Amino acid sequence: xxxxxxxxxxxxxxxxPLKFKLSFFVISKKKLIGYGIISQKSDSAHIHRIxxxxxxxxxxxxxxxxxxxxxxxxxxxxxxxxxxxLKGIKSxxxxxxxxxxxxxxxxxxxxxxxxxxxIRRKFMKESYVxxxxx
Length: 134
Description:
The protein has 134 residues and is α+β, with helices and mostly antiparallel strands. The protein has helices at residues 9-15, 61-75, 91-97, 105-108, 117-126, and strands at residues 24-28, 31-41, 44-52, 80-86, 101-102, 127-133. It has one domain (9-133): 3-Layer(aba) Sandwich (Aminopeptidase), CATH 3.40.630.
């Protein structure tokens, strides 16, 4: 993954002005147990990171977070949620269980962060893009 285009603070602020608009966190008993870093780009919500504290996994919190995100995204005129993951990690099954569709290589092209063909090919070889229409 070292070859992927590096984004600095200015890239995020310029290209993703709504970077944190849909982000949220989950608190239980005054403790942070989960969070989602979600941006809005046009009419879609993009999951940059979603996580649940290890001691709280397996309790349905991730499912509740996706349900919350769906509602929040609809309220901001989004009609789909997109998540990019590396191949071979546990979250791939999670997204599929939540109803996300794994996109074909052709469909993934529109989500690559770079226009450079060699880097985009590497991204598509090592990653999946999941999409959920809401």
